[in-house]
Each structure stands twice: as C-alpha cells, then as structure tokens.
Design goal:
By secondary structure, the protein is an alpha+beta fold. The protein has helices spanning 2-16, 42-50, 107-110, and strands at residues 29-33, 35-38, 60-63, 69-70, 74-75, 78-84, 91-96. It has a five-stranded antiparallel beta sheet, with no helix packed on it. The longest helix is centred in the first third of the chain and has 15 residues, at 2-16. The radius of gyration is 19 Å and the shape is elongated. Residues 1-17 form the signal peptide.
Length: 119
C-alpha cells in the first residue's frame, strides 16, 4: 500500500503543477493579455475588401500585456503572440493565438503599407 502511494505521488504533483506557457514560433512575443480586440470583424473585413487591402493573419490586438499569471492555472487572460511590442505594457499589436500565424517572418504581418492594391 505504502509503496503504491509513493509511486503515485509524483504523478499527482505533476497533475497539480501550473500549465506550461505556450511558445511563439512565428517570431512574436508571448503576452498574457487582459483583453483582446479582434480586427477580423465583418465590418473591418468588408472595408478591407472594398479598399483592396489584404488583412494580415495577425488580426488580434492585445490590451494590457501584463495580465497576472496564476501559479495554479496559468494566464488569467488570453495568451497571444504579438509582433509589435514597443507599446507594452499598454498594448501589443499584430497578435494571434500561440504558436502564431505570421508566416514567412514578422515583416509579412507588420508591413501594412504594402498590403494595398491587391484586388
């Protein structure tokens, strides 16, 4: 009985450990956001289509990049991978859910001026 308890104790400790934070594989910075604002709302998508603007796949903005991280449950907000980080801890821009949606490098998602004219 005692031997089986000793064997199961490490497994129980692992089950109660805080979850590992995700990693960003697209060059973005991982933030725990207090709230997020989606840029892919139907109105925004319609305006982008009318103006021949290709939306970036990084369509979420992070509001409050320093949300608390609970040791038991992890991020007390939403994890995001953000490409523009100079405005932290207020906002993170061009974000997506981990591991990130920016393909081919961050400049493909943050170079917004070159996205006009592709109708």
């Amino acid at each position: 009985m005692i031997q089986s308890l000793l064997l199961i104790t490490p497994l129980l400790l692992l089950a109660w450990a805080a979850p590992e934070p995700p990693t960003c594989t697209d060059g973005g910075t991982l933030y725990c956001c207090q709230s997020t604002l989606a840029g892919d709302l139907p109105l925004i998508e319609t305006l982008a289509n009318v103006s021949c603007y290709n939306l970036t796949p990084e369509d979420v903005n992070c509001i409050g990049t320093d949300a608390p991280i609970d040791p038991d449950t992890g991020c007390v907000g939403t994890y995001t991978c953000c490409q523009v980080t100079r405005l932290a801890p207020v906002v993170g821009l061009f974000c997506s859910k981990p591991p990130g949606d920016c393909e081919g490098g961050p400049e493909n998602c943050t170079n917004i001026l070159d996205k006009f004219g592709d109708c």
